[in-house]
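Chapter review. Work through the record for SurA N-terminal domain-containing protein before attempting the end-of-chapter questions.
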Amino acid sequence: MHRRRRTALVLAAAIAAAAPLLTACGNDAHPGAAAVVGGQRITVAQLESRVDEVRQAQRAAVPDDTQYQQVVSSTSSLTRDTLHNMVLDQVLHRAARDQGVTVTRKEIQRMRTDLERQAGGSKGLETAWLQKYGIAPGHLDDNLRLQLEAQKLAAKLGTDTSQPAFWQALSKASGELHVDLNPRYGSWDVQKSSRVDAKTPWVREVTTAGDELTA
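Structure tokens for SurA N-terminal domain-containing protein:
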């Protein structure tokens, strides 16, 4: 596989899962917010909407009730993972901006066309991103921008997305943005640029779509 495409997949896999470390922090200074990044709120309603988009796409792709429930069960941490993606998107964008990195619409379209060719078409790519990374079709281009920013940032730093220098740049951006997560979703590890799961009795990983956003 071409190195650029391989890098995109590696980063997407890294973004899709946060490290489950045994610590938690945060405060209730921002009621109604799932997270605050750079002084801007990611509201619980925005997070719920993003998760609903994924669940609706999964439901459309898997009409059988039993199979759909299996999909929901296998992605029971979707809410927390989605928030992690939303925060990391902003952190990476800040790190890229700090290095003068920009991504054009043309570059995103070129990447999408390339990936669609590999996946057998637009629908194949949307399905692959939904199944592997929990990205709803409506946010596919946003995620591809994220991939391109990561690639170009790594190139600017003379490294790649798997190396410490890349993640150190994200850690620096995390510190600048003062990421603050609502404790129900864990906290943010500035050094690792990842969500730290909160092990609290009132937050449970659920196995049904109806419960997921009320845990």
